[in-house]
Amino acid sequence: MSSAAPPKCPFPDVRRIVTGHTSAGKSTVLADTVQPPTSWSPSSINPKFDLYYTGSTPAAIDSEISQGKWVDEIAEHPELISMGGSTFRAFEFSPGSVSPVHRTVSIDYGIVAKGSVVLELEDGKRVTLNEGDTVVQRGTMHCWRNETTEWARMYFVGLGAKPVSINGQELPEEWRPEA
C-alpha cells in the first residue's frame, strides 16, 4: 500500500445524539454532536469514531440524575472493548486499506453502512460484505480489507466476552502488523 495520504472521505460527518432525562423525569437530549475522528491503532490511517461506552451490564443509564450531570464514558475510555459493558463505534476504510490483523476478547456486531469490505480470517477464508450486510465477530483473528476504489464505513457494537478456550489455552487479545 502506498504511503501517500488517502483522499478525503466523502461520507458525511458522524453525528451522535444521546438522550436522557431531566430531574423531573422528562426525556431530553444530552448531546447532539459531530464526533471527531480518532485512530484505532498506531499504524492505522483510517479513522474511527467513538460513539458510546458503558462500563457494566446492565448499563447505568441515569448518570445525569444519579450524579447530577451526564457522564460521557467514551471520552474516558480509549480501549476498543469494554470488558464489562459495551462500546459503539464507527470505522472508515480508505480505498485499498488493510487493518491490522487482530483479535479482541469480545463479541462484535457489525453493519456495513457504506461501501464494501472484505473480512479475512486466519485460515485464509475471505468474505465480502456489502452495504447492509452484517457480521457477528466472535473473538476470531481477522483483518478488514477495502479492495475497492471507494471509501467504506462500518458500525460496530462490541461487548466484552469470556476468552475463547481451546484445549485449555485461552486466546488473548492480539494485534499483528498490517497484513
Automatic annotation (TrEMBL):
It comes from the Eukaryota. InterPro entries: Cupin_2 (IPR013096), OryJ/VirC-like (IPR047142), RmlC-like_jellyroll (IPR014710), RmlC_Cupin_sf (IPR011051). SUPFAM superfamilies: RmlC-like cupins. Coiled coil: none annotated. Pfam families: Cupin_2 (PF07883). Residues 91-157 form the Cupin type-2 domain. This is Cupin type-2 domain-containing protein.
